[in-house]
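In this section we walk through a basic example: taking a raw amino acid sequence and producing a predicted 3D structure, encoded as discrete structure tokens. The instruction is simple. Fold the sequence below.
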Amino acid sequence: MATVGLGALFALSLLACSGGGGGGGGGGGTTTFSLSVTGKPTDARVLLNGTPVQDPTRIVLPPGTHRIRVETTLSDGQVIAQEFEVVAGSISSIQYDLRRYQIELNPATIEVWVDEVITVTASLRDTLSDSFVSADFVWTIPSEQGNPFATVQKVSSNSARITGVRRGATELVITETRTGIILRVPVSVLDFPPPPN
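The resulting token sequence is shown next.
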């Protein structure tokens, strides 16, 4: 069982932004709000509505709802991320920690043959207490123009079955519902040579 660094327990500080009223009223110019996103690792990428942010400590938000994504790429190419929605003016800062948790996958490398099925299990480890914690994972595989390379079916809160559909490469996206953390794992679907008996 290999350990994949995963994590991201984040704390949203529910502090109101100063300046400018957040409702629907108010006069001439456009009201903006500021948001600071900080945490570990400090070099994590921060995206606002899909666009990279130059200075995460000073994000300017126009009124409305926005999607913030914080992500980092591991040495094996897997991506861990945290995504959440922010209503401009509702909070002034986000504190994230992409190193707080680790996910242990079995198998660690996901390869499946066409027309074959494998079961993948996941466990969530809290690195502060060095213990496993309860988790409920959502498993998805993006579809490629309606013709997927593989499909996934959840079996339990910590396991899923992956079926190979056609040869190619895709990814398994695992979202832990309690923390909202996301892990993207490469999946290879093979069809030659045929699987051993």
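Looking at the output, two observations stand out. The chain has two domains: 2-97, 101-190. The first strand starts at residue 2 and ends at 5. In the next section we compare this with other chains.
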